[in-house]
Amino acid sequence: MNSLAIELNEKIAQTNPYLMGMLSSLGKRMYFPSKGILSQSAEAKQLASKYNASIGTAMENGKAMALNSVMGSLPGWSTSDALLYAPSLGIPELREAWRQKNLQDNPSLSNYPGSLPIVTNGLSNALSLVADLFVDAGDTVLLPDMNWDNYLLNFQDRAGANLQFWHFFRDSKLDVTALQQSLAIQPAGGKVLVLLNFPNNPSGYTPTQSEGEAIAAALLETAKRGVNVIALIDDAYYGLFFNENIMRESLYSQLAGRHPRLLAIKADAATKELYVWGLRVGFLTFSIGGAENGSPLYTALEAKTAGLIRSTISNGCVLSQRIAVRALHDPAFYEQRTAKASLMAERARAVQETLDHHPEYAEYFVAYPFNSGYFMCLQIKQSNSEQLRQQLLQKFGVGTISITNTNLRIAFSCLEVQEIPDLFQLIYQAAREFKA
C-alpha cells in the first residue's frame, strides 16, 4: 500500500476507527498523489515568480492559449476561466457556493459538521465514487424495490454487492416498516450501505416529516446496535416538492453527525436543481459522528475521493463549474428556481386531476402515491407493462418507461400541462385494447 494511503488511513482511524471498517479494499488503498506532479505544480504556482514551466497547459500572453473557433462560442468568457483544468475536488468557489445553497435549503445542517462538497461529474459519477470507496464484492447494499437502474449498474454489476430490497409501498403508503425490518436483520459487527432517494425515481414520492423521522431513527438504531451504516442519500430531485405535508429538508439533515457508526453521504447535483443536465456537475458531502468541521477525517476522505477522480476522469469540466457558480451567485437564483418548481407542480397537479376526473381508468391502472420530483408511476392491472409500453410507442407514438412487469413510469417533467389529459387518455385506450 502506498505510504500516502497509509497516512490517510491513520488519520481516519485516529478520529473514528469504525470508518475504516466501512471502506472497501480499494477505498483503503486510495490516496491523492499530493507529493507528485500535482503538488509540485501547485507549489510552483505559488512560488515560481519568474518562470513556471511546471504546468501541462499551453499559455499565451499570460492566459490559456485558445483557438478563435472555440472562443467564438464562448462570448464573455476569458480563456483561462473557460478552458484550464479544474482541481480534482472541484473549483473552491463552487464547493463553497454549493455548501451555502445546502445550508439555505437545510437550515438544521448548520448544527452538524461535515465535509465541504466535492465536485463530481454528475450524480452518476458520485454514485460510482461511493461504490468504489465503500463497497467490496459481497457487501450488502439495501435499497427500495422502486429504484433507478443505475444503482444496479454501480453497486451490483460494477462493485459486485449483494443487493437486498425492501418494499417501498404497501396499501398506497410508504412501507417504513419494511425498511425497519430489513435493517433489523443486519448483523452487528457488519456493515450495510443503505441507498435512499427522495424524491424517489421512479415513483415521485417524498416521505412525510413523520415518515422521514422514522427512517432516520431506524438508521440510527441500527448504528447503535453495532452495525456500520453507510447512508447514501440521493438528492437528485431535491427541491421539487408539491405537497405541503412532506419532508422539506434532505434526509441527510437528520443523519449528519449523529453517530460514529453512521456515515451520512449526500449525493446531489446541479443537474436538476439548476436545470443543466448536460453540464454534468454533481457533488458528494460526508458527515459522521465524532468528526468536527475541519477534521483530518474529512480531509482524508476528500483526498481518497480526489484520488479516485484523478485516476479516472482527472477532473470535472471547469466551464460547467464556473457556469454553476455564476448561477448560484445570481441574486435572482432562488426566485428563478422557485418559478420552475411551481411549473413542475402545475404538471403534477394536472396528472392528479386527470386521474381524479377519470375513475374509469382504475380498471386498468392506478397511480402509486406521488408528491414531488419528475415522475409518477402507474400500476398496470390488465396487461404487462412492457407490452403496454410497446403498444403506446408503436401505435400511438407515446413514450413511457416500463420499470417492472406491472409498473409504468411517466415523466410529467417533460410534458406541457395541456398535453397531460390526452396522454392518460391514450394510455387508457391502449390498456383497453389488451383486454379486448
Please explain how this structure is put together.
Strand 1 and strand 2 form a beta hairpin. The chain has two domains: 3-32 and 88-329, 3-Layer(aba) Sandwich (Aspartate Aminotransferase, domain 2), CATH 3.40.640; 334-435, Aspartate Aminotransferase, domain 1. The protein is 44% helix and 15% strand. It contains 17 helices and 15 strands. Helix 7 packs across helix 14 and helix 8 (122-134) packs parallel to helix 9. The chain has helices at 3-15, 17-22, 25-29, 37-47, 68-71, 79-83, 92-105, 122-134, 149-158, 176-184, 209-224, 270-273, 296-312, 318-329, 333-357, 385-396, 420-435, and strands at 59-60, 63-64, 118-120, 140-144, 162-166, 169-170, 173-174, 191-197, 228-234, 262-269, 282-288, 365-367, 375-380, 401-402, 407-411. The chain is globular. With 436 residues, it is α/β, with parallel strands linked by helices. It has a seven-stranded mixed sheet with strand order 3-11-10-9-8-4-5, sandwiched between helices. A four-stranded antiparallel sheet has the order 12-13-15-14. A two-stranded antiparallel sheet has the order 1-2. It starts with a helix and ends with a helix. The longest helix is centred in the last third of the chain and has 25 residues, at 333-357.
